[in-house]
Design brief:
The protein is of the alpha/beta class. It has one domain: Rossmann fold, CATH 3.40.50. It is 44% helix and 18% strand. Strands 1, 2, 3, 4, 5, 6 and 7 form a seven-stranded mixed β-sheet that branches. Strand 1, helix 1 and strand 2 form a beta-alpha-beta unit. It is globular, with a radius of gyration of 19 Å. 37% of the residues are buried. About 5% of the residues have low confidence. It is an enzyme of class 1 (oxidoreductase). One of its GO terms (molecular function) is FMN reductase (NADPH) activity. Its EC number is 1.5.1.38. InterPro entries: CE1759_FMN_reduct (IPR023932), Flavoprotein-like_sf (IPR029039), FMN_Rdtase-like_dom (IPR005025), NAD(P)H-dep_FMN_reductase (IPR051814).
Length: 207
């Protein structure tokens, strides 16, 4: 069975360093799974493509069909890489808004790598002081290694050196978590509505 790794990028630019970092970690996880004899596909979702849909969902509590499909892709993945640029000592408002429209239980038990990009290494604490509390609240299975990339980490736009090492470590952790969690992670069954007559028949006096 092929496993699914989804990279969710909260980056706003084109090209986006957040997406570049997420793709690097996702590929590292895919390669680590391949070494274990497990096939995996990596897909990337750029939230800027869904900005209007996310905003409308927050205002109306209704997810457009394209947003609902995207959410199903995210929540149905076997592992996630979540990447955000740092804005005002926090994650992007776009990423936070997306997480706000998810069902609070949608990521429970989901293996997640946290990653971020910023203009200075001083912003790296956003991983521990902003992102970790959010995903702890959502009860995701957070990987031990978070990955932060400052401009000097890229090196000719390749993300080599220590950044590549951290991405590989995080990817290997995600691969191990996917291998261990895939058979056991709770999957929500589609909710079905019983006919009204059957609901009435199930009512008993004194219940």
């Amino acid at each position: 069975m092929t496993q699914s790794i989804v990279v969710v990028s909260g980056g706003l630019g084109v090209p986006s360093t957040s997406r570049m970092l997420g793709d690097q970690i996702g590929e590292a996880a895919r390669a680590a799974l391949a070494e274990r004899g497990i096939g995996a596909g990596v897909g990337t979702i750029e939230l800027r493509d869904f900005a209007v849909d996310i905003t409308n969902n927050m205002l109306t509590r209704y997810a457009s069909p394209r947003l609902a499909e995207m959410i199903d892709t995210v929540t149905g993945a076997d592992g996630l890489v979540i990447v955000s640029p740092v804005f005002t000592a926090s994650v992007s408002g776009l990423l936070k808004s997306f997480l706000d429209v998810l069902d609070p239980q949608a990521l429970e038990g989901m293996p997640v790598v946290m990653a971020a990009t910023g203009g200075s290494a001083r912003h790296s604490m956003v991983l521990e002081f902003v992102m970790r509390p959010i995903f702890s609240y959502l009860r995701a299975a957070i990987m031990p290694t978070g990955v932060f990339a400052a401009p000097e980490d890229w090196g000719s736009d390749t993300g080599g050196g220590h950044l590549a090492e951290r991405a590989a470590r995080a990817g290997a952790e995600l691969a191990a978590a996917i291998e261990g969690a895939a058979p056991t992670r709770r999957r929500e069954e589609p909710m079905t509505s019983l006919p009204f007559e059957q609901l009435l028949a199930n009512i008993r006096p004194g219940a």
